[in-house]
Amino acid sequence: MPLMPEKLPEKIFREDGLRLDGRTPDQLRDLRIEIGVLKTADGSAMVCHGKNRIIAGAYGPREVHPRHLAQSDTGILQVQYRMSTFSVGERKSPAPGRREKEISMVVQRALEPVLFLEQYPNSTIDIFIQVMTADGGTRCASITAAALALADMGIPMRDLVTGVAVGKINGKPILDLSDKEDKWEEGAADMPVAVMMNEKKITLLQLDGQVSMEEYEQMLNMALEGAKKIYEMQKEALRKKYNSELVGR
Amino acid sequence: MDLSISKKISTIEKNYILDLLSKGTRIDGRGFLEYREIKVDAGPMLKAEGSARVYLGDTQVCVGIKYDTGTPFADTPDEGVVTAMAEFIPFASPMFESGPPDENAIELARVVDRGIRHSDLVDKTRLVITPNEEVFLLFVDIYFMMHNGNPWDAASLAALCALKSTMLPVLENKEINGRKVLVPVGDPRPLGIQDYPVTLTFAKIGEHIIVDPGLMEELIADARISYCINKNGFLTSIQKNGAGTFTTEELIKTAKNARDLAPMLQQKAKDYVRDLSTM
Predict the structure, then answer these.
(1) Are A174 and A187 in contact (CB under 8 A)?
(2) β-sheet bridge partners, residue A58
(3) A89 to chain B, closest Cα gap in Å
(4) Which pLDDT tens digit goes with each residue over A69-122?
(5) What is the domain range of residue A137?
(6) Is A53 in contact with B66 (Cβ distance < 8 A)?
(7) pLDDT tens-digit readout, A184-195
(8) Nearest Cα residue to B135 out of B68, B195, B199
(9) Which residues contact residue B252 at a Cβ distance below 8 angstroms, ignoring those fewer than 6 apart?
(10) What confidence tens digit (pLDDT) does each residue in A20-49 have?
(11) Which of A217, B70, B99, B105 sits at 20 to 30 Å (Cα–Cα) from A58?
(12) CB of B100 within 8 Å of any CB in chain A?
């Protein structure tokens, strides 16, 4: 017998116009970043964004497995995005699904532009992303975490990459959709964005839902504003780890 | 300690460890029957019905409990089902590769599973929703975050703590829009546990036997034995692994050592309360 599905709220905006969790349309959820959470990986980071709890660990540059993926003229980046079985309401099957495979690929594409992969022929940089709790916008938070794991590894990078989602609900653009907002269907759209903040270059863009040209422009600008704040927090987290390490010496 | 070591340990390192053991000490300075520091917290598993993260030195494991509902097994119509699954996340060690659980992960899940099954840890009759028809299926999902030796003891302690903290909804059969569904009524209730089974693993290196092997020790060990001990000091499951052998004297001595060390691990579980506020 099936379980009764989770109930969605009847309204997605409160009487006072604020969102269900009390945020204004252009407000981010609480964000906490920790660098170097895994002693076993060459670089690692944990991002707590809303209730998202995402851990990224990076290795490399190292030998490619399986061998036939190696390229003699450049290094490669391999990304594995996985959801833990207990990261969502109803237990997720441990086998990776189509969604996880697609997200692994788009995250890889979003991160490649900041790396100097041509410097590491025949080698790979591996990033493993594990979602311990999912709360909407996991691919964006995963990119934010993965970029920090790369930086923590200490390889040259052109910039960090910052992920943030924008969306639209009842025709109103909002920043950083929560899980409930993500599942809302009326007049809704969801647009994950990843950006190299220094040069404002977009490295990931996806859209689910209908938006007008005006809304599209508005949402892109909103995403950039949000990403700017996250970018500052990313840099601050790195400084916090490495400044204290330098002082410690 | 450098954790980025590969599967192969050099002869020099192996001889060094053996040399230390013959002098009565270990590479990290521990005694032969001494555990590394153990810490337990709730971990970042906010959506699990129960959870625990165990640090055993630099080994870290996360366990989350989820449920589903389904029909009971034909031979146990009045019992729910508890199953364990283990996955080594590739960032837990440079030795791990991505892919479905390998034989080591499957063995580990089965060691934890048997520890749960052969003690009275979970009263499975309490997992019945409608006798013969509908029961809770509990999933004990184990994820290795950092591998620095002895995943077995860390995983079984984390599973025990996670089960101890598990809250389950009270489900009732209802008909909604002509469709039969299970609806949660009232507040979730604690699953409740009745035993404290813990796993204690010994490694045999040459003639020496040590408890709670670190990664280097584990990799050069000739053989390994894991005992599961319940709250009464009874053995509830044993798993021997590795190409080496144990004498009967060694088996009796290590089992008694396990019994004597078990209360220390059990106390960690007794003291554990799931607190998500700092996670």
Answers:
(1) no
(2) A43, A127
(3) 6
(4) 999 999 999 999 999 999 999 999 999 999 999 999 999 999 999 999 999 999
(5) 31-248
(6) no
(7) 877 789 999 999
(8) B68
(9) none
(10) 899 999 999 999 999 999 999 999 999 999
(11) B105
(12) yes
Peptide bond into A156 cis (omega under 30): no
d(CA A182, CA A6): 14
What interface predicted TM-score (ipTM) does this complex get? 0.91
Q: Which residue numbers of A have CB closer than 8 Å to B's CBs?
A: 1-4, 38-42, 44, 46, 48, 51, 53, 55-59, 62, 65, 80, 82, 84-91, 94-95, 126, 128, 130, 132-135
Which residue in chain B is spatially nearest to A85 when comparing CA positions? B141
Q: Which of B204, B150, B66, B278 is nearest to A83 (CA)?
A: B66
User: What CATH number corresponds to the domain at position A229?
Assistant: 3.30.230.70
Quick check: is A241 in a domain?
yes
> Residue A207 to residues A192, A210, A216, A238, B158: CA-CA distances in angstroms?
7, 8, 10, 31, 40
- What is the domain count for chain A? 1
The values of phi and psi at residue A140, to 5°, are -70, -45
Which of B47, B69, B100 is closest, CB to CB, to A86? B47
Distance, CA of B239 to chain centre:
13
Are B47 and A134 a contacting pair at CB < 8 A? yes
pTM of the model: 0.93
B91/A55 touch (CB, cutoff 8 Å), yes or no:
yes
Cβ separation of A86 and B64 shorter than 8 Å?
A: yes
Q: How far apart are CA A182 and CA A190, in angstroms?
A: 7
How many C-beta atoms lie closer than 10 Å to residue A137's C-beta? 27
- Which B positions 189-208 lie with beta carbon below 8 A of chain A? none
Residues of A in contact with B148 (CB under 8 A): 39-40
Q: Which chain B residues touch A58 with a CB distance below 8 Å?
A: 91
Within-domain flag for A194: yes
- Residues of B with Cβ-Cβ distance to A141 under 8 angstroms: none
**C-alpha to C-alpha distance for A33 and B72, rounded to whole angstroms:** 44
